Amino acid sequence: MNRRVGDVILVLRRAADITQEGLASRLDITQAALSRYENDLREPDDDMVEKLGEALGVTAEFLRHEFRMQGAIAADAHMRRQKTTKPSDWKRVEAQLNALRMHSSYLLERVPLQPQNHVIQVDPDEHTPDQAAAMLRAAWRMPIGPVRNLIRWVESAGVIVVEEDFGTHRIDGMSQWAGEHAVIILNSALPTDRKRLTVAHELGHLVLHNQYIDVDVEDQANQFAAELLMPSHLIAPQLNNLTLGKLADLKAEWGVSMQAIFERAYRLGKATSDERQRFYRQMNSRGWKTREPGSDLLPSEVPELAVSVGRRLDQSGLTRREIQLLVGAREGYTTPFDAPQRTLRAV
């Protein structure tokens, strides 16, 4: 039996947004009994494991699995969120990320990826976030200039990227390592410019904060993201005398928000505090602070790696049920690795 089966139950219950009382009722046991299972104070027998799996949408084998992941199953995630986020919201989304970690780890132990690139590890005490971003660009041999389709670059390093409806606009994304690969979960409501910055931010966490944790992790991830998407030596000459029109043009070129570009200018000493205040007043007066113009004109970026793994398994001759078993999912439950269903067409 998995020594951390309690963590698995806890993560899956929270990811499904089920209360402890609600799950106990489905299992026809007391809340106290379920609490003992979740806290590893009591080991569920085979019959109870089967019932738990049925209630949580996973196979009994998945619940029994000994996950080999860096850190605990229910490890705290790196996240990009607003300070006013409700704890219940980020705990639920964090559980969704950890459920994805488990499912992807469970599958990729059986179907290993062979990524073209790898996420490098950099000690933030030895290198600045800017240097780390430059090192990653060099390691991945990324072209000079704006990054086209960042998600594809990240997936080329074996990172599983999944979009989910978070049910709140206050959380943009989260990331965590799962064995030899990493996972990033994104809020599906994000416009493309904000999505790209979030992916770059989470990539910064994976590069800088897997083994080396610093008190300024969020600021470091922000600096990494800015340098990755807007290298200072390339964008700095473009940041003089910024107007809203010029910012809109730069947004179309670099694929990030006008606000991110202005913050880059401010951090690089290309804009004063007074100019920064004036900029945000202009954005607020136009209602652009929360939804900028031009975001829908940027090329969309959609995660494809998880689905492509499912498609590859499908093309190898496995049935949908066999693929679900490899992921550890019960019949009738969808997973990010589900391949598009093949349909007959008229000829």
Describe this structure in words.
- The protein contains 16 helices and four strands.
- Strand 3 (171-178) and strand 4 form a beta hairpin.
- The chain has a four-stranded mixed β-sheet, sandwiched between helices.
- Among the domains are: 1-66, lambda repressor-like DNA-binding domains (434 Repressor (Amino-terminal Domain), Orthogonal Bundle); 129-297, Arc Repressor Mutant, subunit A.
- The radius of gyration is 22 Å and the shape is elongated.
- The termini are far apart.
- The chain is α+β, with helices and mostly antiparallel strands.
Output the radius of gyration. Answer: 22 Å
Largest sheet properties:
4 strands, mixed
Overall geometry:
elongated
**Tell me, what is the CATH class of the domain at 129-297?**
Mainly Alpha
CATH T-level fold name of the domain at 129-297: Arc Repressor Mutant, subunit A
Order of helices and strands: HHHHHEHHHEEEHHHHHHHH
Number of helices: 16
Strand coverage percent = 5-15%
Termini gap:
52 Å
**Within the largest sheet, what's the order of strands?**
1-3-4-2
Count the E strands.
4
Helix content: 40-55%
The CATH architecture of the domain at 129-297 would be Orthogonal Bundle
Regions with pLDDT < 50 over 5+ consecutive residues? 343-347
Helix/strand/pairing category: alpha+beta
